[in-house]
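Researcher: Please predict.
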Amino acid sequence: MQIGVNEGYEPVQPIHFSHKIHAGDNQIDCQYCHSGARSSAMAAVPSLNVCMGCHKTISEYEGEEDLAQGYTKAFYTAEIKKLYTAAGWDEQQFKYTGKPQGVQWVRIHKLPDFTYFNHSQHVKVAGLDCQQCHGEVPKMEVMRQHAPLTMGWCIECHRTQKVSTECAKCHY
């Protein structure tokens, strides 16, 4: 077993979130939801308030279905209702109840504790596209870890891009 090598890891989340629908079909930019990617070390999972910014008025799914996989309009609409419960949103009264329940998302991308990775350095400074590390997210129904995120994988990218491979840049 190796630390941090979870290529292909695709956990089931408490609320099904389709990157294919949001980033693919609706073309929502990654950094709209993951705004930390351009301004901090962590891209982070967006708060439910970010989701509710749109889903206050989008309470039913009206897009394409994938019947072979069981992704029906009813399935997606039920997931939106889970979001409402988690955020404490009353869709009949169109207001927050003050009783949010939150969501315990399952982390997908995890580096070893002794490794430091700064999203903003790669996104804002280097100008990398999210897909370079995270794969074709706009085509992913279920988010998965695209790359192994090993030291060798990172070093290979640094060498290809002709940037420093000095250890102290990433490891403390």
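Model: The helical segments are 19-25, 30-33, 36-39, 48-55, 73-87, 119-125, 131-134, 151-161.
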